[in-house]
Design a protein that fits this description.
The protein is α/β, with parallel strands linked by helices. The strands form four sheets. A seven-stranded mixed beta sheet has the order 1-9-8-5-4-2-3, with helices on both faces. Strands 7-6-13 form a three-stranded antiparallel beta sheet, with no helix packed on it. The chain has a three-stranded antiparallel beta sheet with strand order 12-14-15. It has helices at residues 7-12, 15-28, 35-48, 59-72, 90-97, 117-122, 143-153, 205-214, 236-247, 249-266, 295-304, 332-340, 352-364, and strands spanning 52-56, 81-85, 102-106, 128-131, 156-160, 168-169, 172-173, 180-184, 198-202, 219-221, 224-225, 272-273, 281-282, 288-292, 341-344. It is globular, with a radius of gyration of 20 Å. It has 13 helices and 15 strands.
Length: 366
């Protein structure tokens, strides 16, 4: 049996260091807003090449708090439109509707799965105030094109970088490619905590300060509440664990790349469309996503050989009950992607034997 992801193996490889990090926090007697979070924020901002990092409770909150902070700063108002790719994970959209902003669903580029400038341009209106590209599966969106258009139109650019820790666009890392970025450290992400965690990165000091206050009951200073904030803090234990994991992120990205290169060179099934790799973008392979017209049959054939695959994602946000008002929308590119995508097993530490078995099984399927 080949699992989709062997998360236990990924984390057990660092067991001694993770246990030390936990012990350090336990013995410190200090569990919220302390030294570990402060150090992790510095380290992760440095890693991304961003001026500031604010640890928060999860990736959804990271995105949501960025939008909320722009509202507090007067840069966004209720009813403003935010252009977002229609084929994203629903969290991206939830962050927008939770703030009384209007998501405008744009079709992605069919080959890269990502939003590009042409897709944004099609959806521009007088109410457009922001664009939220998602670096889906670990490859950055067309940021050069999107940033140029955003500059021309005066739009905010907020990256959903939840799947793209370490991914690069023309030599710059995700998290420093727009005005602000939201990261998730959900355990299965490329930089994963041992629980929920997230972060905001930005070069805008004022925005970072407002996000930090909003995430801490709206308070910059204890018992002085400037905003009606929330409690969405990264805790010391997760920060300490993330500091260990961050040290190995680049090595793990190299392992993911080697695994992706193996699949790219081995899989030859003519019915399979392999993922596109752009040479201006350094892909970090959060997911290795192929396409096939008979996706469900292919998934079944692989399952019969003991190979676990997943679908990211089976139902697009506009077809969910949560957004019933959009259920009648027609987004053919997005809908075709959802019908055809299949994510193959890939994790740092996956053996060549395991990969070989996956490639062979894909090739021997119809
Ligand atoms: C995981 C993910 C999120 C949400 O992150 P959580 O930490 O689970 O809240 C948002 N957007 C995308 C694209 C994701 O993959």
């Amino acid at each position: 049996m080949i699992p989709f992801l062997d998360l236990k193996a990924v984390n057990m490889k660092r067991a001694a260091e993770l246990e030390n990090a936990f012990a350090r926090v336990l013995e410190s007697g200090w569990y919220i807003r302390g030294k570990e979070v402060e150090e992790f924020e510095k380290e992760f901002a440095g890693y991304c090449g961003a001026g500031h990092c604010v640890g928060v409770a999860n990736g959804l909150d990271a995105l949501s708090l960025i939008l909320r902070a722009y509202k507090e700063l007067g840069k966004l108002q209720d009813g403003d439109e935010v252009i977002v790719p229609a084929n994203t994970y629903i969290a991206t959209i939830l962050s927008i509707t939770a703030n009384n902003l209007v998501p405008v669903l744009a079709e992605p580029d069919d080959r890269s799965f990502n939003l590009d400038a042409a897709g944004v341009r099609e959806k521009l209106s007088a109410r457009t105030k922001a664009v939220m590209p998602v670096h889906l599966y670990g490859q950055t969106a067309d940021m050069a094109g999107i940033n140029a258009l955003a500059k021309e139109k005066g739009l905010l650019v907020i990256e959903d970088a939840a799947q793209a820790h370490g991914a690069e666009d023309n030599g710059k890392r995700a998290g420093a490619l727009g005005h602000a970025a939201g990261f998730s450290f959900y355990p299965g992400k490329n930089l994963g905590a041992l629980g929920d965690a997230g972060a905001v990165t930005t070069n805008d000091a004022e925005l970072a300060a407002v996000v930090r206050a909003l995430a801490n009951y709206g308070s910059h200073k204890k018992y002085e509440n400037v905003y009606q904030g929330v409690n969405s803090r990264l805790d010391e234990v997760q920060a300490a664990l993330l500091r260990v994991k961050l040290k190995y992120l680049d090595d793990e990205i190299l392992e993911r790349r080697a695994a992706a290169d193996f699949y790219l060179s081995r899989i030859a099934n003519p019915g399979v469309v392999l993922p596109q790799v752009k040479d201006t973008q350094a892909h970090v392979w959060h997911l290795f996503v192929i396409r096939h017209k008979n996706r469900d049959a292919l998934q079944k054939a692989l399952a019969e050989k003991g190979i676990q695959t997943l679908i990211h994602y089976p139902v697009p946000p506009h077809k969910q009950r949560a957004y019933a008002a959009w259920n009648g929308l027609s987004l053919p590119v997005t809908e075709r992607i959802h019908d055809q995508v299949l994510s193959l097993p890939l994790w740092p530490g996956m053996t060549e034997e395991q990969q070989s078995a996956v490639a062979q099984a894909v090739d021997s399927a119809a």
